[in-house]
Design goal:
By secondary structure, this protein is of the alpha+beta class. Helix content is about 40%, strand content about 15%. It contains 26 helices and 20 strands. Strands 3-2-4-1-10-9-11 form a seven-stranded antiparallel sheet. The chain is globular and about 70 Å long. The two termini are about 35 Å apart.
């Protein structure tokens, strides 16, 4: 896990510019730093202030001025996880300098690929997955990404072709942003690195901002709120000319097509196949040359991962990290203790998020996130990562992805019932409806209504949203005309499978960003075993009754966990996650909210009086509370990054 960035500029790259980008991403890689400059005829490798002692003989970037010949510059910040030696330093070269790579992430099947490539005659000088990427590129070209199991964002310079090949993993676990101009292309792991460049101004994309405040998401799942910054979508690669910066993008992975092509075993073998895929994924995600731990909410997903990992790491201490609260209605530490107490090699640690910590760290968290966050629950994750950092843990497993691929959210249960009714399976419908009321939520009609919302035409969705939610009201009347043209994000599917695909495309992208930024803020690599693409494809392809059965959501995962965990954890009827007591936090933030509103300059397009009223309003609905805290986060984001809001940005 690292930070990468680079610049292509037809008039030459200034190493000091690369150093500026590197400084703001130090948290992503405090263990080492490296730079390289490239032209058609020459390559120059440079050290930075944080380069390891073994490489102090190479020239310093601070002593090299802009040279027009070098039209490509690369940088790397290293968090050492595999091959901790100096041989793992990046930018790394391969094949006598023909290829140069900067890489963020992990290729978990690198050992298997390395053996396959060795058999084909390729040689290796390190024990890292970085070198495997370049050898795979030499053998398979741009199709090399099809062979990778893992998470990645990388930039590979092909000197012979004078091209820069960039790629992002199938689900967007690792970030990759870019900005362009005349003869210019820059990319980075984080938006703030691009904002250090003179050519990239912190101007808002007003369409995206209005969509975000109104619906909590943008209609384009790969969009962000900065006008001049773009995101390479998940499952895409990009090829750029290393002199001019002209580029083309290509999708190399389509989840919907992969699911359609997935061949399922006969019913008696489904559970066994799922177990094997999950078990193999955890094996791969435990590969590291540093200790591995896990976040643990006490829910089914993280508890299953902890049990599997702890059993595989017998003889080694496995540390877990849980958010705990005095408010018992949201505290899950009881369930987490049931897990950790049953595993002799687990060392449990608790984090205690509170409202004082939230206000103290809000600006810092938003700076690391690059963008606003949708509720205060991200702060709970922030505190968990902080605690893990204090315990010197560099790698954490996390349960992201299971809800999306196995239907763990409320909308899935609603759409499951709608599908049963539409197909005329009334007996099954009645059975599942009653059992869901017993085992999932008593508000079955509500979840059916939430799922049915996405069957409505867009104008009806917009009207209901404006009446039921508070975000739209924050936008001032001067932008009423603009509001008529914003798009409603297509986040809800009309079938169980479509809902899974859209959940991965939309909501999960936000969760993965929170995960990446919160973990990297504390120099931690977060890994998500449920997002092994083979496990995802298999899970989404399954029939609904493997996901919801007898009123139990994520049924197949519960059956996998049954031999591993306390039944009270496996068959829990409530679903939480890393929540925070948003209502009491708001009620106890009178003074902080008043100072917050007084100190900030509210953008003109927002209705300041409306937001002031929200600060003093008594709220009880969780959706309204999340939207309120989202608005607070948005205002802090605008302040931290000095964002300008123009109707027609330059």
């Amino acid at each position: 896990m690292c930070g990468i960035a680079g610049i292509i500029h037809s008039v030459g790259v200034d190493p000091s510019t690369l150093q500026g980008m590197s400084r703001v991403m130090k948290h992503r890689g405090p263990d080492d730093e490296g730079f390289s400059m490239h032209s058609a005829d020459a390559d120059l490798f440079l050290k930075g202030d944080d380069t390891i002692p073994e490489l102090q003989t190479i020239p310093a970037a601070s002593q090299v001025s802009r040279q027009t010949a070098y039209t490509l510059g690369l940088l790397h910040r290293r968090l050492s996880i595999l091959d901790l030696s100096a041989q793992g330093h990046q930018p790394m070269t391969y094949n006598h300098g023909l290829y140069t790579l900067v890489f963020n992430g992990e290729i978990y099947n690198y050992r298997e690929l390395r053996n396959e490539l060795k058999s084909a005659g390729y040689t290796f000088h390190t024990e890292s997955d970085t070198e495997v990427i370049m050898a795979a590129y030499q053998r398979w070209g741009h199709d090399c990404v099809q062979y990778f199991v893992g998470m990645w964002a990388f930039a590979l310079y092909d000197k012979q072709k004078q091209q820069l090949f960039l790629s992002r993993d199938r689900f967007g676990i690792k970030p990759l942003y870019y900005a362009t101009g005349a003869g210019f292309l820059a990319f980075a792991s984080e938006i703030k690195a691009l904002l250090t460049l003179d050519a990239v101004k912190p101007e808002a994309d007003m369409n995206a901002v209005l969509e975000y405040l109104s619906f909590g998401a943008t209609s384009d799942p790969s969009a962000n709120l900065f006008h001049h910054v773009k995101c390479l979508p998940p499952g895409h690669s990009m090829v750029a000319d290393s002199h001019s910066g002209t580029y083309r993008q290509k999708m190399y992975y389509n989840l919907e097509e992969a699911v359609a092509a997935c061949k399922l075993p006969a019913d008696p073998e489904v559970q066994q196949t799922f177990n094997a895929l999950l078990d193999r994924s955890v094996d791969l995600h435990l590969r590291a040359d540093v200790p591995v731990g896990s976040t643990l909410s006490g829910g089914l997903d993280s508890s299953t991962l902890v049990a599997l990992a702890a059993h595989k790491m017998k003889g080694a201490t496995f540390k877990t990290f849980t958010a705990a609260y005095r408010e018992k209605n949201i505290d899950e530490s009881h369930y987490a203790r049931l897990v950790t107490d049953s595993l002799p090699n687990v060392e449990a640690h608790l984090a205690f998020p509170d409202i004082e910590g939230y206000w103290n760290d809000l600006g810092k968290m938003i700076w690391h996130q690059d963008l606003p966050v949708n509720s205060t629950s991200m702060f709970a994750q922030w505190e968990v990562m902080k605690t893990a950092h204090q315990q010197h843990v560099k790698v954490l497993l996390d349960g992201q992805g299971a809800d999306e691929m196995l239907g763990g959210y409320y909308n899935f249960a609603g759409i499951h019932l709608i599908e049963l009714a539409k197909s005329g399976k009334w007996k099954t419908f009645a059975h599942e409806r009653n059992r869901l009321r017993e085992n999932f939520t008593p508000h079955v009609n509500t979840i059916m209504g939430r799922a049915g919302f996405y069957f409505l035409p867009e104008f009806a969705q917009r009207r209901i949203r404006s009446r039921k939610r508070i975000g739209m009201g924050a936008i001032g009347p001067a932008y009423a005309q603009d509001m008529q043209h914003i798009k409603v994000p297509e986040r809800g599917g009309r079938s169980f499978r479509e809902q899974s695909l859209l959940s991965i495309q939309f909501g999960m992208q936000d969760l993965l960003r929170y995960e990446d930024r919160n973990s990297m803020a504390f120099s931690i690599e977060s890994r998500v075993p449920f997002l092994d693409h083979r496990l995802v494809e298999f899970s989404i392809a399954l029939r609904n009754n493997w996901k919801i059965r007898d009123g139990w959501t994520k049924y197949i995962l519960r059956k996998s966990a049954e031999p591993l965990l306390n039944k009270e954890v496996v068959w829990r009827k409530d679903k939480m996650g890393f929540l925070t007591p948003q209502k009491s936090w708001k009620e106890n933030s009178g003074g902080q909210l008043a100072r917050f509103m007084q100190d900030l300059e509210i953008p003109d397009f927002l209705d300041k009086d409306y937001i002031q009223r929200l600060c003093s309003a008594n709220m009880s609905e969780s959706a309204h509370l999340s939207e309120f805290w989202k608005i607070i986060s948005f205002l802090k984001w605008a302040s931290v990054f000095h964002v300008t809001f123009n109707r027609n940005p330059s």
